[in-house]
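Appendix B, example 12.
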Amino acid sequence: MFFSTRNSNLCISASKAILMGISEDGGLFLPYNIPKIEVNNDLLKLSYCDLACLILKPYFDDFDEDELKKAIALAYSKENFDNKIFGIKSFNNFSFLELFYGPTATFKDMALSLLPYLMEIASKKEKNKKTIKVLTATSGDTGSAALANFKNAKNIKLIVLYPNNGISLTQERQMLSYTSSSSRAYALNGANFDDCQTLVKKTLEKENNNFILSSANSINIGRLLPQIVYYYAAYINLVNEKTINLGDKINVVVPTGNFGNILSCYLAKKMGLPIDKLVVASNENNVLTDFFRTGIYDDNREFKKTNSPSMDILVSSNLERLLYLVLKDDHKVCKLMKELKEKRIFKLEKEDFIKLNDFISYSVNEDETLSSIKDLYYSSNYLIDPHTSVAYGAFLKFEKENNKNNLHTLVVSTASPFKFPETIAKALGILYLDETDALHKVSEDTEIEIPYQVLKTLENKTKKIVINSNDYKNLIFKKETVTIKTPATSANLGCGFDVCGVALSLYNTFEFEINNKDELIGFSEKDTKDNLVLKAYQYVFNKYNFNYVPVKITSKEINIYEARGLGSSASCIVSGVLMANHVLGEYFDKKELVTIASEIEGHPDNVAPCIYGSFVTSYKKANEYTSIQYEINKDIHFILCVSDFELLTKTAREVLPHEMNYKDVVYNTSRIINLPSALKEGNLPLLKDLLDDRIHTPYRINLITDAEKIKNIAFMNNLPFAISGAGSSLLILSKDDEIIKKLKDEIYHVHYNFYDLKIDKVGATIEVKYHE
């Protein structure tokens, strides 16, 4: 059972505490009872999973042992921890506890691999049928670990918030690489981690009846408690390796930002793990060092961006838990937290301050961080990341000041050095061009392989989305209606057979809303039965094995004629693909969207201009399409002549010869080379010649009623003429308003619908509106 640091009379189950994340009063949950688990010979034989079950079962007392064991086995499986779960690197009087073997090469994986399973079990126990929205703030590593480990969680949506330009590029890439249909990271504009954390905590306190809000930060007790396990496991390893004797006390140094990792260590000590001093290692944001030296917590100071960004924190949330554990008084905790919120400072009474004597703290500046990386590497051929370097620097200071303390010291190593390649390169004096170059240069110079977890980040294709606080609230609390508007497209353009197309100012508009089931509104019976918009939307999820998100699609406005060579199918396909991409947090860039849409359509000539706008040529290489967008002269009008006659692509292709005359192919090829420049310049005489192709117009024109008449009207006015795509619509290009009026009258008598269109320069657009 658990209670709030601000209300010790509160009594809730472990399941409820995990789902809530924080208490309704803003406090953090703590267990009523901290079990005693002494390290003995029996513990020395346990596997990591068995040890985790032994330690966690007393806390999660409403969990069945079998379901807890299953969750632990899944969390620490070979799939998540391919090489090993943790490592120990020992030197003379100290050892590094390596916690970077999980999916994202950071210690956050150690607990976040388990949290999704704990949440799923808790949700069942609470008989919850609502969606769980997990809100997480990150200074770099928590976000990646949460996104990686929650990606397959059922009925859980994860929203990660990080400070824009406040983390390393590698950390950002890694987070974005784990974008999925249920998980996304967003950069908060003009913010630091404290701003992100404050916004998340305020949001978690808000009442809501539509879904459950929770957190994956260490403010969630389900994230905090699993971290106890690796301190026990490390101690057992030191004993089994005969580095220490069973029962020997050790010191532990933890690089500290939000105070969760070291608080887990403190809980391990209270449970019976033989720990003497807990050394709090801070960077230049040394609010904790000052606190443990003076008893005054004062965040009225400059926030510094350092080379250990995950520790760039001034408000350490989990300190509140420590305050309760030493003060045993929820009223005092409430008073202190109120002072911190209102005045940004609080001071412990002298009798309370002395209760913190288990802790000692040191701060390490940026230069010292770089020096420690360099010195350790060149003296011991051992490479550490900047956060571990802060811990190592603090250890050196602790050892110098406490030379009578001859105990072995465990220094917690929290991340792979390759997550911070620029800092490592600077420390080792390696010249580099950018962060990616630094990554490879560090690997080459040290002859250490880049971890696969970091290599994967280089493949990231998800773009960053920067938001403000209002955007964040909308993402969480409001429903969204997405309107996608796609332009008509004319493909082929005479000599550009199956290669190019142009976007025109005629549009289809579809409206999308996330729904509990797929639903189609406003479509004809024919379009409902085999709906191309929905099929394209579903195709993306099936192709990439994303968790499917049902959608309601409403047909708002249809102006693109079907089976007329105007890209009606491309319009539907692109709309569905773009909505899927929106739901997936803009996972794909335009190039990949063209490739996906072309797989469905069969060719890119319509979908590429529909996505990019303007005039686009496309070619395929290695199963992906590359598209090039060109400008079109602003004075050109595209006169669209649309008959009532449908012409299916299948029919249009059947009339083409199976073999082409060599001279005709050369004729067309020579002309397509000049098409982009002619369109840009608006050179109508040249365009008239270029669009007069020999590959498909001579064969298709006889399929279209009165097409020869339209062609003759164009030629009599010395204007370019083309059949639009594989359909029955015809195009005439002009720049003269008087001639266009004349054309309208002449074409009207041939019984064609007449449209005076301009080029669409932007392609498909997405508009998102939020509502209650």
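Residues 486 and 764 are 4 Å apart (CA to CA). The mean pLDDT is 93.
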